[in-house]
Structure formats: C-alpha cells, structure tokens
Amino acid sequence: MKTLNNFSKGIIKENPVLVLVLGTCPTLATSTSVLNALGMGAAATCVLVFSNILISALRNVIPDKVRIPCYIVLIAGLVTAVQMLVKAYAPELNESLGIYLPLIVVNCIILGRAEMYASKNNVFDSAVDGFGMGIGFTLALFLMAAIRETFGHGTFCGMEIPVLKNNNISIMTMAPGGFFVFGLLIAAVNKFSKHKPKKNSFGCEGCPQFAVCAKSELSSCNDAAEEDE
Amino acid sequence: MTKLIIIMLSAVFINNYVLSRFLGICPFLGVSKKLGSAAGMSIAVIFVMLMATAATYPIEKYLLEPNGLKYLQTIVFILVIAALVQLVEIVMKKYTPALHHSLGVYLPLITTNCAVLGVTILNIDEGYTFIEAMVNSLGSGLGFFLAMVMFSGVRSTIEGSDIPESFKGLPITLVAAAITSLSFLGFGGVIENLFA
To answer: With an 8 Å Cβ cutoff, is A183 touching chain B?
Structure first.
C-alpha cells in the first residue's frame, strides 16, 4: 500500500510538471507531437529511475559537501548512455528531440528527486519514486502534446483527424501555443485540485536549483535574492 | 562580417532562447518579477554563456574530437560549466566584491540553467567557427536579457489586474508569456530578407 502511494504521488498529487512545475523547458519544447512527447518522457523516465537507484545506493558513500557535483556526474553519465541508445535504435527520435536529449542532464526533476528523495531513502523506494515521477512527467507531456498536435496539425500520433486536418491552428505547435496550453493546463489543475494556488507557486519550485539552492529553506528564493542586492 | 551580424540578430530575435527555443524557462518565470533582479540575472547569464563557450569550444575541438571522445560531450560540458561558475564566483568575490555583491547571488543559479549548456552544445552542432560561436553566445545572452527585461515589464502590469482565481500565479504568467512570444514571431523572416 505504501509502495502504491509512493508510486502514485508522482502521477497525481505531486505531478512534477503540472503541480511542482519542474522541467518546464523540455515540457514546452518537446510537446509539439505526441510521439516526441512519449519519446522524451521515456528517455527522462529511464534516466530518473536509474539515477534514483544509483544515488540511493551510493547515499552513504558520497560525501555531503560534494554531493551535487557527484549527482550531476552520475546523471550526465546516464544521459549519455540513453543518448547513445536513442541514436542507435531510434535515430528519428534523436533527430526530432535534438538538443533536448542531452539537456535531460539539467532537467530539474532529476536533480530534484535525487536531492529530495533518493539521498534519504532506500534503493527500492527510490526506484519506485523515480518511476512514478517519470510516469507523471510522461503523462503531462502526453496531455500537452495531445492538445497541441490535435489542434495544431490536425493529427494524432501521425494519424489524420478528418475535420481538424483542414482547419488546423498552426500557432498551437509554435512557441506561443506551448506557453498558452501549459498555462491553461495548470489553471485547470488549480481549479480541480480545489486548494488555492500557492501564493509563491513558482518562486522556488519553478527554479531549476530549487533542490540545490541554499535559499530554498527560506520562504522564497526570489525575495531572498532581492534582499541581498 | 554579414554572417556574424546575421548570427547575432537571429540569436537575439528569431531564435530567441527563451521565447522560441524554450531554454532557460525556469529563471524566465522565476526571476522575472522585478526589473532589477531580471536584469542582474540576465547579465550574469550573458557573462557565463561567453565564458562557457570560450572554455568548451576549444575542449571540443582540440581534445574531444581528435581523440574520438565526442560521446563524452555532455558530461564534460556540464562539468566544465559547473567548475567555471564556481571559479568565477571565487575570483569575483576576491577581486571585485562590488560586482560579486550584485551578480554573485545569481551565479550558483546558473550552473544548471539549460540555456547555458544549450548554447555550448548548439555552437558545436551548428558547426560554427570560434568567432561565430562567441557571437552566437553573446546574441543568445542578449536575447535572454531582452526577453527577461520585457517580460518583467509585462508581469508588473499583470500584478495589478483582476485575474480569475484559478489563473492566479503561474497560469496567467504563462498566458502572458505566450503573448510576448507571439510578438517575437513577427521577426521571423525579417533578418534573412534584410541581407538577401
């Protein structure tokens, strides 16, 4: 039961994209088509599960002071492995994901989970947590891509949709459409989750260094940064 | 020379890192609330982007490529950038405390900013020469600056308006970002035609 909760929190309650608002860059950039989104989701999930397992297994070995560089090296190694696999077995996906594939290294979801979860929990729990978060990330990407591809191209996974095909709104697959659909989805989540949107909903959580930032213990890293000036 | 100008202008306007390539969205949404911090962050980003390109480009061309180690690109680049940012911070703290005081707070935030890693990898992918790569990095940094400063203006207008409950906070900011990004679509094709 506990394991199930651990798994499902990543999908709904703590969805990394729609609730925690992490990993916005790949979400916006690769959600132009459903296949791209699923490919990105799968690649990131893969890295997330293995990085959580490795970091959790090494949590007593890695010295606390240099843990962030250690995590980054581990994650970069895994990303390189995934990159090579994608290049070998799915060259088309590699082509369409382009720069965003190596940029999984700086995806804040992965570093965030490493810091917040894997460094404190055992290997099995960390693997489950990583898998749940990965599925949550993939689902959010899929949702965005489904909306953008359906209305933008009039297709779904490359299959044509009769009426929409000839009446496509091509702006949906361009940059503004990405921001717009993402905004609407988060608004929908706010509406249905029934709790008021947090006042500082993207102060720290929206920042890639949320997990590593020394100021994340304060109420808002932005405000703290401004006070420092 | 014309090529450099084209690279520069397209990096600033057409392929704007934030608004059309979706790199560095996190600081774009997180630090754009106030003009001062938006400008400070962007200047730090320009600085780090130039330094990172100057450091990673020779490593790629003279170390990784001749030895057939291209697959190590991701690992090497992120480590170089992380080390570089640390180094810059230490040097700044020691020799220019005033500058460190105003930019220093943003430096650690930049290490894992995807725009910085993105620009270094894109410079290699596009097959730029060293000069072109530096110009592209400067342009990308300036584009980031432009987007941040513009958007902090947009956001200060949003603050005072009446917004539906569920749109408060991030959603309305994203919708505003969509409109800002729409304005940048207008630059498409302009620069090619300018020099055609």
So the answer is: yes
The CA distance from B128 to A134, in Å, is: 35
A212 touches chain B (CB under 8 A): yes
Distance CA B141, CA B65 (A): 26
Reported ipTM: 0.85
Of the candidates A21, A191, A229, the beta carbon closest to that of B166 is on A191
Domain boundaries, chain B: 27-189
Q: How many other CB atoms are found less than 10 A from the CB of residue B87? A: 12
- Report the percentage of chain B scoring pLDDT > 90: 22
pLDDT surpassing 80 at residue B193: no
Mean pLDDT of B48-69: 90
Closest A-chain CA to B123 = A99
Q: Is A111 on the interface with B (CB under 8 A)?
A: yes
Q: What does pLDDT average to over chain A?
A: 80
How far apart CA A90 and CA A188 sit, in angstroms, is 34
Tell me the β-bridge partners of A159.
A156
* Reported pTM: 0.84
